[in-house]
Design brief:
636 residues, Heat Shock Protein 90, 3 domains, six-stranded antiparallel sheet, five-stranded antiparallel sheet, 17 helices, 20 strands
């Protein structure tokens, strides 16, 4: 449908342009038409080509800057990923020490020394040391085994105080010399400290402590040094969220006062590219934030880097504009000599078409251009009529095919399991339960089939949902409860069939099926502000917000259980039938449960409205009635 509409739009636009062109030419006197064409077209060509040349050069310069900026952003992005991987690995090490060792150890009965040493040995290429302190600054354990410096008070150090100030967070320090332990080799290590508050157990009593992981700063330094290995004046540096430098290729010059950096301003920038002027030099600053830490990875590109190679481009643009202008002047002269003679007869044909004759006999003759124009006009007029007919047919066919495709996404998995349950009941001589299951299944499929209709009453849709839940409760031995609270007046309105059952199915499989305690599902239907809302809420496991955001967008998500009819299927079917203002909305929180709300228009269920909705004509009828009512109101 879109393709046919686009073709029709292009054909009409082409005809309008050609008609306007021919009429413009014919409005002049036939004796001066050649000069009238030649002079204005030459002037216009000159202006256009100069404008085109200037624009081309500007666009090339802009694109050159964009390409370099994008390349820098990709480089920063990859570097950030590497940094995040490294920091994520350090975090995993910290988590492993805390959750696998410290939490499981009572310090009055055991020690964490051996486990800490094993973890240090496994990761010593990236670590300098481990240390575990009490909330009063007393050293409990350290790896590698070392002697703490005399008179050292770790409670006054920033990494220690920050860890206890915000208990739930991990804290990354800026680079500093590790000064906690005496080193017999008198070596000093530059480190970045990862500290966190931990829960210690001593004689069965939980207390606070601080776990310190000193990461080897040289790993980060080497990673960023490789990025800066370039002959250009572009460079990359790293600072924290407050602008304090963590790494800079000219760190020694900055410390000596021989070089300065605008790191405080750059730290305030949002992620992306920014233009600035620093020390009289215009430059582009590209910023990317490192997760977990708030660190800013910043690339500085001097503006003169973008000017490299543009001199040859200017020469090329000037030559291109000059040659094109000469060619256009020659073509203008040739066209002016050839188009004037047949234009009169072609103009008569155009006037006939403008008078309302949709099938005029277009003059075809004269020069090749005019003859082609005549043939194109004649062919386009013939095609327009056919395209308009085809579009109407394609619109309805596409609408039906989309609805059929969405409706057909039902997996027989549920039917197989239900039939297996019935066989199991019969073999176990539970005939009453088997009869009840067969009855509910028959009623369920009676509504599912609905004589091939896709529009049913809310009464039938809810009966289908209740049958489904009755079957599922027996299959799962009443492992959960379901409560239907439906306002009676909404039962007589229209709905797309099979929209509540898939939501209930998701509530069972992904919400309450595997709960340790009894699961509960609440179905509430009500009328509000002239629209109908049906809410399905469970007290299950719930999901994070990023998972919720994908439910109605990602159609490729695999379905582990059930019918395979996802929420996006239900959402699309509602919107295809009633419009984009209707559909599903989802609210969920981990460990709190999930609520899915169906939003439908309040359309009374009658044979007339059911037929109109099936044929996709209800909205047009409603608009026509509304217009007639407004007209009668205006007349009165």
């Amino acid at each position: 449908m879109k393709k046919a509409g686009r073709v029709l739009h292009e054909k009409i636009g082409m005809i309008r342009k050609k008609i306007s062109w021919c009429r413009t030419l014919w409005h002049f006197s036939p004796r001066s038409i050649q000069m009238t064409i030649l002079v204005p077209f030459t002037i216009v060509s000159l202006v256009c080509m100069l404008f085109l040349g200037f624009t081309l050069y500007q666009q090339f310069a802009i694109r050159s800057q964009q390409m370099l900026t994008e390349s820098t952003q990709q480089l920063l992005g990859q570097t950030v990923v590497n940094l995040e991987d490294y920091l994520r690995n350090m975090r995993r090490i910290s988590d492993a020490m805390y959750y696998d060792v410290i939490k499981d150890t009572d310090l009055s009965k055991g020690s964490v020394d051996s486990e800490m040493n094993l973890l240090y040995e496994a990761n010593k290429d990236n670590l300098i040391s481990f240390a575990l302190y009490t909330n009063r600054g007393k050293l409990i354990s350290a790896a590698p085994v070392a002697v703490e410096k005399n008179g050292l008070d770790v409670t006054q150090q920033e990494w220690y105080s920050k860890a206890l100030d915000q208990l739930e967070n991990l804290h990354f320090s800026t680079p500093h010399v590790q000064n906690l332990f005496d080193d017999p080799t008198f070596r000093y290590y530059w480190v970045i400290s990862l500290s966190r508050a931990v829960e210690l157990t001593d004689h069965g009593t939980p207390t606070l402590g601080v776990l310190l992981v000193d990461m080897n700063y040289s790993t980060i330094e080497q990673m960023l040094s490789e990025v800066n290995d370039s002959n250009s004046q572009q460079y990359v540096y790293l600072c924290d969220s407050s602008g304090e430098l963590i790494y800079h290729p000219r760190q020694m010059q900055i410390n000596a006062g021989l070089y300065s950096e605008d790191n405080l301003q750059a730290a305030a920038y949002e992620d992306g590219s920014h233009e600035e002027t620093y020390n009289g030099e215009r430059r582009v600053v590209v910023v990317d934030t490192v997760s977990y830490t708030g660190w800013k990875l910043i690339s500085v590109i001097p503006m003169h880097n973008f000017q490299m190679g543009l001199a040859s481009t200017r020469y090329f643009v000037i030559m291109l504009v000059t040659l094109t202008l000469l060619v256009m002047m020659l073509m203008n002269r040739l066209v002016s000599l050839r188009v004037s003679r047949p234009l009169r007869r072609l103009n008569d044909s155009i006037k006939d078409m403008e008078a309302g004759n949709l099938h005029p006999k277009i003059y075809i003759g004269g020069s090749t251009e005019v003859e082609h124009l005549g043939r194109t006009l004649q062919t386009s007029l013939d095609q327009i009529s056919q395209l308009m007919k085809d579009i109407v047919v394609e619109q309805e066919e596409k609408r039906k095919s989309e609805l059929d495709a969405l409706q057909s996404q039902i997996n027989p998995h549920f039917l197989y399991n239900t039939l297996d349950s019935i066989v199991w009941m019969i073999e176990g001589e539970r005939y009453d339960d088997a009869v009840f299951m067969v009855t509910q299944l028959a009623s369920l499929f009676r509504v599912s089939l609905s004589k091939g209709k896709t529009i049913i009453s809310i009464e039938d849709e809810l009966r289908h949902a209740e049958n489904y839940m009755n079957i599922q409760k027996i299959r799962y031995k009443n492992a959960f409860s379901v409560n239907f609270d439906i306002e009676p007046q909404i039962r007589t309105y229209c709905t797309v069939k099979l929209i509540v059952q898939p939501i209930l199915e998701n509530a069972i499989y992904y919400g309450v099926k595997d709960m340790d305690e009894d699961g509960e599902i609440f179905v509430h239907g009500f009328l509000k502000d002239g629209d109908i809302y049906i809410s399905v809420k469970d007290n299950g496991f719930g999901m994070p917000q990023e998972e919720v955001n994908l439910l109605l967008k990602d159609n490729q998500r695999a379905h582990k259980h059930g019918s395979g009819v996802g929420l996006i299927n239900v959402h699309n079917r509602i919107q295809l039938r009633f419009g984009v203002e209707y559909g599903l909305s989802i609210q969920s929180e981990p460990d709190e449960g999930t609520q899915v709300i169906i939003h439908l228009p309040a359309i009374p269920y009658t044979e007339e409205t059911q037929t109109l909705l099936e044929e996709g004509k209800y909205q047009g009828q409603l608009l026509q009635k509304t217009t007639e009512q407004e007209d009668r109101k205006n007349e009165s």
